[in-house]
Specification:
Oligomer: heterodimer
CATH superfamily of the largest domain in chain B: Butyryl-CoA Dehydrogenase, subunit A, domain 3
CATH class of the largest domain in chain B: Mainly Alpha
Order of helices and strands of chain B: HHHHHHHHEEEEEHEEEHHEEHHHHH
Number of strands of chain B: 10
CATH topology of the largest domain in chain B: Butyryl-CoA Dehydrogenase, subunit A, domain 3
CATH architecture of the largest domain in chain B: Up-down Bundle
Number of domains of chain B: 3
Shape of chain B: globular
Largest sheet of chain A: 4 strands, mixed
Strand order of the largest sheet of chain A: 1-4-5-8
Mean pLDDT of chain B: 94
Radius of gyration of chain B: 22 Å
Radius of gyration of chain A: 22 Å
Structural class of chain B: alpha+beta
Amino acid sequence: MSGEQTLKPDHAAGARHPIFTEEHEELRASIRQFVEKELAPHAEEWEETTFPDSVFRRMGELGFLGLHYPEEYGGQGGDYATQIVLAEEMSRSHSGGLVMGVAVHTDMANPVIKLLGTPDQKERYLAPAIRGERIACLGITEPGAGSDVAGIQTTAVRDGDDWVINGSKLYITNGHRADYIVLVTRTDPDAGYGGFSLFIVDMDSPGVVREKRLEKLGMHASDTALLAFQDVRVPHENLLGEEGKGFYHIMWELQGERLIAAAGAVASSERLIERTLAFAKERQAFGRSIGKFQGIRWKFAEMATKLEAGRQMTYNTAWRVMQGEYPVREISMAKLYTSRMACEIADECLQIHGGAGYMKEYGIERAWRDLRLNRIGAGTDETLLEYIGRSFDL
Amino acid sequence: MTTTSPGLDHAAGRLPSPPFTAEHEELRAAIRGWIEREVRPHVQAWEDAKWVPTAVFRRLGELGYTALAYPTALGGQGGDHVHEAVWAQEIGRGSSGGIAAALGAPTTIATPPIVKFGTPAQQERWVGPVLRGERVAALAITEPGTGSDVAGIQTRAERVDGGFVVNGEKSFITGGVRAQHYVTAVKTTNDGGHGGISFLVVERGEHPGVEHEDDPAALGADRGDGISASPLEKLGWHASDTALVSFRDVFVPEDHLLGELDGGFKLIMANFQWERLSMALGAVAAMEAVLEQTTAFVAERRAFGRRVADFQGTRWALAEMATTIEASRALTYETLRKHVAGIPVIQEVTMAKLMTQRALVEICDRGLQLHGGAGYMKEQGIERALRDARLGPIGGGTDEIMKDVLGRMMGL
């Protein structure tokens, strides 16, 4: 080491990225206060019970479920960066399952209604969703179709003024608690990509069967369902967007979801580094705090560097979205990079904690389990590599 | 894959990544055009000769591309570091490590200390001629026994009547053979260290003349000034005259002291951030060039009855490369934005330097692999790119130093 350590640390200078303004920082502070006070203390308890529906109502009261939704439906009318702020601050709940349950509502299912819904649909579904009175879920994945969305088999057949839906959906977050589902179906088996349509289906419709709660490696605070649809009748007015355009609609949805997932992965990783840094400064071994060992110091340097790159990828891509671009390649890269990054950081933080990291008490093993889903959910690493590779028009 | 939206154009209608704007993209096009016309055709020859013709420095001086961020009062273009970043990127992608270093070092590392700490008379003497390409300058800090640990330098300057007498050796000095002056770190107290280092501008004796301006032996020989410089053989960066420079009883007049006596450590630190950030910027651009070259290669090359590009393994390798590049770019560009905005970015620059220099090695290696046997051959230029890239994790502060800096900034 040269004398560079004599320079004053500037890592707290905190010059924010241009996508954020003072208003975003105020919003950040208020979300943070709520999350730390009302959510984080329950993280462990909710691992056992899943988080309660009242979280939605409370967040609705506070306006956090409608940050980027139109004011006429009770939203805050904010920009895309407000959603990034929400995703980042929710990480302070230290509960991946809770973050995911809320994100499915705010950033996966309801954005589709916001973009494509009729005024009537928005009145019936979006407005109560923003108030936290009705909970949404999103039905894409099936027992036979995951990342390969085009392999979807759930059918919707026109019958007079109704559609009749049959099929099943798997790994549906919020599937047990949800009041409605944004459902991807096949409406024309011969039309290829042009044969899919979306519906909003009330979950109390006859024929909707909420089958078992699925047990998982992590994300225990969320409810994950297997759903069956047996001759479920849905009125035509619940068709969402254009008939036959469902595939393209859902591809659009996935882009937003992926970038929010990236923001969440970055923030969760940052939380882990913060906690592990405090641990390394405290924990003594061989006569000094373990953070004083060069090997440990370097691990933090590596983690912080990866984190900063992931963060700037996410912000820069969000900036493109906010300029009206549709940066599929960059979103794919940000999601791929940050998911892997989060898993690597979680593993390194667990390692630095030693035996304590393996224990439930410190919450590191939970984060390690929760973050493992990032490389699978919302598009697997492999799917994203394929997207990115193909984006070169080879 | 069946999920890609058909017909999506990934490059269409994209804004330049901040902090670059349309204005910078025009500058970029101009610089790229010049490099394509006047540099690229000669890259291999200059690499083989281990020398860039001195006329190229003068040509560059006319064009002003290495003076973009210098104030107009000193003969510069009056731009800022975003303009200079464009140069760092274009020379980084369009030439070779050695050429980029040879052409860039005089203005990127050797002259900023004079702008920042020099008197008007010193600036008059050592800034304009360098910007015009009439005179080549080198920064001389590293020694055979001291690299990243700059406080340990041993080259000694003894006070004598009217100035100093310098004795010692400087190593790995970019432009050391050609330089007409060295901005040199010397020990001015017995102990040296943080409080005992000063900077002297050590000038060489009379230039051997235009007829010898491309003759390293003539340029490097002792001209009766007590200075000699000999080029070092290296893994890569062949076009750069990286030298071992010896000072034997070299008299340096008092008014060649740069900044405060014993205050030289500050000078060393002052320009590190920009040096490292420009390395990161160059690496991002060089990575893009490797990816473009590799993509073009696999689209042509056939194996087992199809194009190499048609294998999933190839697509994924390209996707991995592109993602690494995008992460490097995002980190580096945001750091540049903050740096230009005057926000202290030591931590971010250190991260960008660490990440991009390794990434460039990795990208060159992957690119070489996808070229197969052709990648190992000189003709494709990718083996050179890999050799050149390998200096990145060492020069400008090693990876290990970067990690120590970062860890300490986190309070460890």
